[in-house]
Design brief:
The complex is a heterodimer of chains A (613) and B (201). By secondary structure, chain A is of the alpha+beta class. Chain A has 14 helices and 24 strands. Classes of the chains: A alpha+beta (613), B mainly alpha (201).
């Protein structure tokens, strides 16, 4: 059972509640101190940004932050960087292996495990747990007191498995996770309360490796997320690569080694950051230098910005908001420091974006505000946050088609039920397959869980009705149950946190859902019509065989011709033609079906009094 | 209803008048009941949203973050119902279908007993519309498709208005027929939307 069932003892002091931004490159912890959200020092030099790097030492100790990063070059396989990218992912996922030079444990387990020095293999959840524990300790040192409750932020586009893994990492670190909060929502919260604003806001969050956008409405203390969108494989890292790609030929390198790529990417990043304040800079690598002009750089990154623009327009559309109706645009993430990004956002939304809170800190500050709202009784009535589920949840139906049960951008917590009927006479079990994503076909969505509902009473096809119910809690985490309606047979499952989408998978899913929306719908319609044709043909055949006396020769011949026509079309791929033929068949069978119904009714009533019914 | 905590009659209130604890939702509560509204196909969208915010402020799990497990569970259940009800009522089409279901006709059920027969001319017309859309789709004529969508959108609006008028008069059969038409038009509009998304990318 998830966290909401834990029992609280009001007498047990919980210490200070904190907000944590668990980031790909760095992590922060913040807390509301004397009414003001403040980031706490986490590195030895007093820095507020903890490098999201964990080193497992040969002698058995664990280092986190700069000290761990310093050992990365010497001990690449014992030092885990960017663990966030592995959260909730399957080892069988081919993308998993591409993300780093790690030694993975090969076994039948469904969880990624890194082989490291000084102990047994560790999962991404445990690695993230070390980062969270380090943040917790820093906060405890700062307060000289206990810290047991935290709000942890996640990208809005994190799916169920990734959220589960993040929440469990918090538990491993000894934290009670009050809430998983979407990063753009956290940023809006940081701005909203400081400014006491009312209105509709867009949050444009471009980090190192991910892009999120959210449209929010703030009315009378209620922060309502209207829609959210994103691309979890697009970020500032792509800008570095854009520079590096052009620099390679300049330095006369055709086939760079991994070390050269690393050096060049690092140099590109330095040059990119320098371009924020200058029109022309020198890119220095391999002891050589190349001039870099801001205008060229801006041309190179334009395609990435256009991509974020499409995602933003879709989010506005989902929220049913025109950009002219916005009252403010908020920038989050280090990549929004690039002047071209700011200009692009200003043009896209038709107004200058707000950027006066440090884009590196704003998410952690918002998380601290939410932690305070959840634990400080005096502030309980100030603000309420209403968030949404970012990706649609659905079930597999006949022909590998997804039946959406909860569409994306529905307010959470939410539940929904979907009734499924048996397809064959006497069928006693139904397979339930839960998926997440926007595509129409199961194969293109993320599989979350499979289970079988058995013990269905054997009834004619279509008579047994099974209701599958989804429950998504306020953290965006899913539970599923199924119930056969005539007998009340129930099965409940919780979706296991063992699998998750890779960043690349999600990105691919999103891009595909836009690119292939058309193919999907056409294919879906065809499959639906084929399934329907099969059902109608079987049914008609059965009725004709069961009631030969109720149909005359000419009628039978006509029906058989119509059926042959449907059968032939169902082999093809024209869904409209199948549908038209089915309509004709349906019309022609009506008189016969009527006679069958009448006879069945008379037989059923024979020997019974009407009162018995 | 009896309060789970102090066993006094809650008189249908969200919070027990005697002990102040969050109460269990009554069995068979409809989406209209959740908002304290009479079942009607027409309602004021702004008032609905204001009421949604007001109820969220009282019932949301964040309000119960430090409360005992039983109260947190009730808050989760109540808020889940609230969000589902809001999703149903804020959309005029979903609202009309829901009201029709309350009156005994569930058009979302796939079995033949639930469907309402439509005149063949109507079905033929819908097929013609779809064929025209397919042609526009092949030519990537988004402007043409949007023009068709405007016309179909108007027809959906008319059918919805006719369905709602019938619901007001409790004429369930007419309502079911008109709302069946709405379904056909709505599916057509979904296809145009898919085309628009394609163009957006």
């Amino acid at each position: 059972m998830s966290g909401f069932m834990q029992i609280h003892d009001p007498l047990k002091p919980k210490g200070h509640a904190v907000g944590i931004d668990l980031g790909t490159t760095h992590s922060l912890v913040a807390s509301v101190i004397q009414g003001k959200p403040t980031c706490l020092p986490v590195e030895e030099n007093g820095g507020l940004l903890l490098a999201s790097v964990v080193h497992y030492a040969k002698e058995g100790g664990v280092l986190v932050g700069q000290k761990a990063r310093a050992r990365a070059a010497e001990h690449p396989t014992d030092t885990i960087v960017s663990v966030k990218r592995f959260m909730g992912k399957s080892p069988s996922d081919p993308q998993t292996r591409k993300l780093g030079a790690y030694r993975f444990v090969d076994d039948s387990q469904s969880v990624v495990r890194f082989e490291v020095s000084g102990g047994s293999p560790v999962t991404p959840m445990e690695v993230a747990g070390e980062i969270l524990r380090a943040l917790k300790r820093s906060a405890e040192a700062h307060f000289a007191g206990k810290v047991e409750q935290a709000v942890i932020t996640v990208p809005a586009y994190f799916d169920d498995a990734q959220r589960q893994a993040t929440k469990d990492a918090g538990r491993l670190a000894g934290l009670e996770v009050l809430r998983l909060l979407n990063e753009p929502t956290a940023a809006a919260l940081a701005y909203g309360l400081d400014k006491g604003s009312q209105g509709t806001f867009a949050v444009y969050d471009l980090g190192g490796g991910t892009f999120d956008v959210s449209i929010l409405k703030l009315v009378e203390g209620v922060f309502q997320v209207m829609s959210t969108g994103g691309d979890s494989a697009l970020g500032g890292d792509d800008f570095d690569r854009a520079i590096a790609e052009r620099a390679l030929p300049h330095f006369g390198i055709n086939a760079p080694t991994p070390t050269q790529v690393h050096e060049l990417l690092w140099a590109s990043r330095q040059a990119k950051e320098a371009l924020t304040g200058a029109d022309e800079v020198a890119l220095t690598a391999f002891g050589q230098s190349m001039p870099l002009v801001r205008a060229d750089f801006e041309t190179w990154i334009a395609p990435y910005l256009q991509k974020t623009g499409a995602v933003c327009r879709r989010a506005l559309k989902d929220a049913q908001v025109e950009s002219s109706e916005l009252d403010g645009v908020i920038l989050v993430g280090g990549a929004t420091r690039t002047p071209a990004v700011r200009r692009f956002v200003a043009t896209l939304f038709g107004r200058e974006p707000l950027g006066d809170i440090d884009p590196d800190q704003v998410v952690a500050l918002g998380a601290a505000v939410q932690a305070d709202l959840l634990t400080n009784v005096e502030r309980q009535d100030e603000v309420l946050l209403l968030d949404v589920i970012p990706l649609s949840l659905g079930l597999e139906t006949m022909g590998g088609i997804v039946e959406k049960v909860i569409p994306r951008n529905s307010g959470i917590p939410i539940g929904a039920g979907q009734v499924f009927t048996t397809f064959k006479d006497g069928q006693t079990a139904i397979d339930v397959h839960v998926v997440q994503g926007e595509r129409e076909l199961v194969a293109d969505c993320r599989s979350l869980a499979r289970f079988q509902l058995s013990g269905i009473p054997p009834l004619p096809a279509g008579m047994a009705r099974v209701e599958v119910r989804f429950q998504v809690d306020a953290d965006g985490i899913l539970a599923v149950s199924a119930q056969e309606q005539s007998t009340g047979v129930t099965q409940a499952i919780s979706v296991k946190p063992s699998h998750g989408l890779s960043e690349e998978e999600i990105e691919q899913m999103l891009v595909d859902s836009i690119d292939h929306a058309e193919d999907d719908i056409a294919l879906r319609q065809l499959r639906e019509q084929q399934v329907e044709a099969e059902r109608v043909l079987t049914d008609t055949q059965k009725q004709l065989a069961a009631y030969p006396a109720l149909v005359d020769a000419a009628e039978k011949a006509q029906l058989e011709a119509d059926m042959a026509h449907v059968r032939a079309l169902a082999e093809g791929n024209d869904s409209h033609a199948i549908k038209a033929a089915l309509l004709v068949l349906d019309e022609r069978t009506k008189p016969f079906v009527e006679r069958v119904m009448n006879q069945a009714m008379q037989q059923a009533l024979a020997g019974h009094s009407v009162e018995e019914y | 209803m009896t309060c789970w905590n102090c066993h006094t009659d809650t008189q249908g209130a969200l919070f027990c008048p005697a002990c102040g604890k969050i109460t269990q939702a009554p069995r068979g509560e409809t989406a209209f009941d959740v908002f304290g509204l009479p079942p009607s196909p027409t309602l004021d969208a702004n008032a609905l949203e204001a009421r949604f915010r007001e109820l969220s402020l009282k019932l949301h799990p964040d309000r119960f973050a430090q409360a005992p497990a039983k109260e947190r569970l009730l808050s989760l259940e109540r808020t889940t119902t609230l969000n589902e009800s809001f999703r149903t009522l804020k959309d005029p089409v979903k609202r009309a279908f829901y009201l029709l279901k309350l009156k005994g006709v569930d058009l979302d059920r796939e079995d033949p007993g639930a469907q309402r027969p439509l005149p063949l001319e109507f079905l033929e017309e819908v097929m013609t519309l779809r064929e025209s859309l397919d042609a526009l789709d092949e030519q990537k004529d988004l402007a043409g498709a949007q023009k068709m969508a405007d016309e179909v959108g108007q027809r959906r609006k008319d059918a919805l208005a006719a369905g709602c008028a019938a619901l007001e008069k409790d004429d369930v059969e007419t309502a079911a027929r008109e709302l069946s038409k709405v379904r056909y038009f709505a599916r057509f509009l979904e296809e145009v939307e898919a085309m628009e998304e394609e163009a957006l990318a």
